[in-house]
Design brief:
Blueprint: H1 7-25, H2 32-37, H3 43-58, H4 84-94, E1 116-123, E2 134-141, E3 144-152, H5 160-174
Antiparallel strand pairs: 1-2, 2-3
Length: 175
Amino acid sequence: MTNPCDSQLIQVYQNLIGVARWICELGRIDILHEVSLLAQPRKGHLTQLLNIFFYLKHHERSWIVLDPSSFEVEWTPKGEESSPRERARHMKEIYTDAEDTKSYNMPLPLGKSVDISVFVDADHAGNKVTRRSHTGIIVYCNLSPVLWYSKRQNTVETSTFGSEFFALRIATEMS
């Protein structure tokens, strides 16, 4: 752990971290996790923040690609190779009481469908000092990222399951 910044460096740090967070909001999700880890105005964090700006200067042509095509995630039960129809049958065997509910007054679709995919992860006790976990979430519409989130969790979880479950709750509330 490095020394805290003095009052003059704290102001510089706060200005730079504000700029970095705006850059993340504007679409540079490649630095989102790193910026969210820089929580305290310490000299080492200021150095890392300057390294992030150096990276941005040399990688200024990074783009978010908005791709309207969709993708399908393949899921095969362990030890089996199966077609989509067989996978659907297999899922019906597992979830026997599940049914597809549709609203009676649902309007007819007027175009291609949109697939929404949410990818969630959490590291258990990633912060070695506070033992708090970190959550990362990306929401895609078809192949385009539309929402992203990276933040330290507010609670200390006792297991990986707890931190992953907490991350899933946040993702469910977001989407």
